[in-house]
Design a protein that fits this description.
There is one protein chain. This protein is mainly alpha-helical and 248 residues long. Helix content is 73%, strand content 0%. It is built from ten helices and no strands. α5 runs parallel beside α7, α6 crosses α9 and α7 runs antiparallel to α8.
């Protein structure tokens, strides 16, 4: 048996004698690693992944599920999309719910009246006193809004734009603005100008929180609580009353 140093020397000699293409094969990453890298990049496969996830918005929360699949296949660290284990699940839940409820009342009673919005949300007014439609609405606010929209607009979009623009304060500011604008534009289709205005503000607030903390669990809770509070206000026909709490 050759001494250790002799084996190493012999191995280097064998490697130096290989043809260039043979060296390339030995040094190239495994196929699954190349596939993951291409998914993370912005080549043809990476752009295709972005388009597929964007198309998933047509059937929410499919796009959020696709984000999770992309994260796994691309071997992107889960923390990059905000999926970080909180120090306290219950504590984060309480903080998120409290923030979401208070934020909704602030928007309904102060911000939206200042913007001249109609006190009645026509897109969801069918929920007023409608017990039969309530379970589906509650499920939608939790799964589609809380889980789905936060995973896509905060988690995924922040990761993608972060790769393109960097992580500097200026880049993070641009990311917050871009994600809020996209978030608002999508809400304008079903809820009009008032829906877009509210989504722009919530997108800016939630986006800023995510840019600072990098954690998505509390935001999921806050977003779900925000929308569930809206549903409760509509269901009990309190929209006009809340909208005129400050401005009579």
């Amino acid at each position: 048996m050759l001494p250790v140093h002799s084996e190493e020397k012999f191995g280097k000699m064998r490697l130096s004698m290989l043809e260039p293409q043979e060296k390339s094969v030995l040094s190239s990453p495994p196929p699954q690693n190349r596939f993951a890298a291409e998914l993370r990049g912005f080549g043809a496969l990476g752009i295709l992944a972005v388009l597929v996830i964007a198309a998933g918005q047509l059937v929410p929360p499919l796009s959020a599920v696709l984000v999770l699949v992309w994260t796994e296949l691309s071997r992107t660290p889960w923390r990059e999309i905000g999926y970080v284990r909180p120090k306290s699940w219950i504590g984060s839940l309480v903080v998120g719910v409290a923030f979401g409820v208070l934020f909704k009342f602030l928007m309904k009673a102060l911000v939206m009246p200042l913007l001249g919005a109609n006190p009645i949300n026509q897109a969801y007014h069918y929920l007023a006193g409608n017990w039969a439609a309530l379970p589906a609405a509650v499920l939608t606010m939790i799964v589609v809004a809380g889980f789905g929209e936060e995973t896509v607009f905060r988690g995924y979009m922040f990761e993608r734009l972060g790769k393109l623009l960097g992580r500097s304060p200026a880049a993070r500011t641009v990311t917050v603005l871009v994600t809020a604008a996209v978030f608002a534009s999508l809400h304008s289709f079903g809820q009009g100008l008032a829906g877009a205005q509210q989504a722009a503000i919530t997108g800016l607030v939630f986006g800023t929180v995510f840019a600072v903390t990098g954690r998505i669990w509390t935001l999921m809770c806050a977003h779900a609580a925000f929308d569930l509070t809206a549903v409760a206000i509509i269901y009990w026909n309190l929209e006009s009353a809340v909208a005129h709490l400050i401005f009579k």
